[in-house]
Structures are given as structure tokens and as C-alpha cells.
């Protein structure tokens, strides 16, 4: 129970943002800039952002060739083009807003590994020219290029490497710390450890634990994969993403971000360690969960691939394992909409929160 003094933390606010991840803090940033005299309050249930914002792999990416080709099975050329354009624009705005040094950005390029004896790999190779033709207007040159052989990296069981010079890596925690400092410097209040239990969509009443009740001018829900706990009738599922990281590996000479199998697997060198995540496709139904516990099934699978295909013949020890929660739905497009009288929703970033988050926050902040 909060004390009398602590209740002042929740004095009447004009705008309440639920969720202190990338989208939530970006929403607060734009709200405060557009309405400098209004009070903006951000509520976060954890002691830190607890979804994917600080648990992701730190990829500054806009989609591998295989992932984008897969999107074309469900979306039109125009929709895919627009989605990639927004991801690219979001990364550009993010870097300009926060600064490369402050987010640990490294323009190392991205690589997609194509499996040997795979129909999917051959499909990617067959469609690479058409994919580049589709995306060429965005960057003025080829995005995806056949490059070195996998053996030159020391990998096994892959047959081709496709290079994308426009991607990079970053540090998710530095990103979030910088973003939080920026919004606080503008006068936005962030309250951690405050769980929202219920929202009345008609009255725009926000009920929090310990009897705290808020009635702001507008409420913004940005809890992504967890949003359905507050708003049931939305096309959204929580999707767990599992990750592991090795102990330092002597002589690890590897730079870049790496994807394979339509983006379901991804890895990079972080301080001479391999950070490796994915495998959700191994058991999709079980991974539609709010749980952030890792599972032996997927962790063992990741470790097998790591030892067999990525670091064959190397002595590897796993140092740490974790999981984060994304928001996905029947569409790969994100969701920004009004869901109540003065309640707005910005979710379903589908694993592209780093690229899309700051733009979604801007879009959400101006909804009427």
C-alpha cells in the first residue's frame, strides 16, 4: 500500500502511458514535445521495462531477404515496401534522436545464411533480383548481395551468404537508458513497479494496484505482447523469444549480425561472445505465452545448432540464458488505433520494436 506521501507520485496527469518500453517512452517523448505544459506520466509494472525492449538481441535490422520474401506470401508488394520503409525510417530517426554512441550502434552489416539442400534457400536465390528491384527505391542500390562462402566464417551446413550493408547492432539497455533520460529531462514522470489492473474504456479510468485511480485526458497502452491482459478484443498474441550467450571465446573473429531460416534464428558477436536466439518455430503454439522462463526444448536446440553449425569444433560454454516477450498477430503490420473514448493502443511490432518503436510512438501520440 502506498503512503500518503507516495500518492503524490500519481497526482492528476493529462496523459498516462502504460508501458516504459521503446514505444511507451517514444510516445511520452512526442506528447511532451507537442504539449510542453501538459503532465505526462508513464507507468511500468516492473522495476525496468520487462517485455522485449531490454531483452532483445540488439539487432538494428529491417528484415532478412528470407523474412521479407515470406512476408510477400501474405502482404502485397506495396504493403511490404511500406513496412520496410517504415523500419528503415524508424532506425534513422532513432539514431538521430539518441545518437549512435549513446545506443552502442555499430554499422557492422547483416548476413543471411542459406541452408544447404534447402528449397527455401533456392527460392531466396531465385528471387533475390526481384526483391532488390522492389526495395531499390528505398536505398538507391542493391540491398541484398551474394557474398562470401559460409566456410570463410567457419560455419557448417550453409551453402550461401547474402550480405546487407545497411544493418547493424546496438546495445538495448544503453538505448533504453538514453531514451528514459531524455524523456525525464523534458519533465515526463516515469513510475516503475506500478501495475495497471484495469482500464474502463468508456470512462477512461485507469485502476492500478494499491487503490491508485487515474482519470487522464488520454491513456496510451504500449505494453505490446502483454496488451491483451488489459484489452481482450485485439488481434494480438504474446510471443516468447529465447536467447543464450556464451562465455568469451578466444580468437572469435566474427563481425556482423546474422540471420537464417526466415529470421527465426539470429546471432552476433557481443564482446567475443556469441549471442544466439530464436527457435520459436520449433514449437510455435507453446511459445505463444506470457511466461519469460526458458525451456529445455528450445535452449537445447539452440545449443545444438550453435555447436554444430555456427562454432563447429570450438570449445563453447554457455554463460547465460533468457527470454523476452514480443507481440505478434495475423498481420505483420503494427497496430495503432483508438480502443475507447480516449484510450489508444500501439502494439504488435512483431520483433521489429527497435526499428519501429520510435515511429509508432510518434504516430500514437497524435491519434484522435
Please provide a written account of the structure.
With 368 residues, this protein is of the alpha/beta class. It is 31% helix and 25% strand. The chain has nine helices and 19 strands. The protein has helices at residues 22-34, 65-71, 77-98, 100-103, 119-139, 172-185, 284-287, 296-310, 353-365; strands at residues 15-18, 40-44, 59-60, 110-115, 145-146, 158-164, 168-169, 189-192, 196-200, 205-208, 213-214, 218-221, 237-246, 257-260, 265-269, 274-278, 318-328, 335-338, 343-347. The strands form four sheets. The protein has an eight-stranded mixed beta sheet with strand order 5-6-4-14-15-16-13-17, sandwiched between helices. Strands 8-2-1-12-19-18 form a six-stranded mixed beta sheet, covered by helices on one side. It has a three-stranded antiparallel beta sheet with strand order 9-10-11, with no helix packed on it. Strand 15 and strand 16 form a beta hairpin. The longest helix has 22 residues, at 77-98. The radius of gyration is 21 Å and the shape is globular. 46% of the residues are buried.
